[in-house]
Amino acid sequence: MSDAERRNSSSRIGGANRQQFNDGQHIFNEGEVGDSAFIVFDGNVAIYRLTEEGEEHLATLAKGAMFGELALIDDDVRMASAKAVDGPTELLVVSRVMFQKKMDGLDPFTRGLIKILADNVRNAQKLKASPP
Question: For burial by CB atoms within 10 Å, which of 53, 69, 97, 131 has the most?
Fold first, then answer.
């Protein structure tokens, strides 16, 4: 994402606070109640799950990526953990209230579609986590 695109995306969420995280600092943990979503403004974030073998790396997110939104869409707990990696990371913090205002501004069809997609993601993760 270019700097201009990043500035434009952050202006669409006016009022979002910025928060700094040091390399290796946890942002949230799997199983916690989610009260915010995040957008990577600068740096990188690792998304992972803890298993019996240790950390299972799911993704590394860079500038412009949003994460943590699923817990705000469906009011369920965090499906994975997140931490800053590869140096300091700056995030835009999108509060539940701000996120809900954005969702409320959508037409009912789009809102319903987003909730269905969120359910599909959760169900797919549950299937993946359950051994055959």
Answer: 69
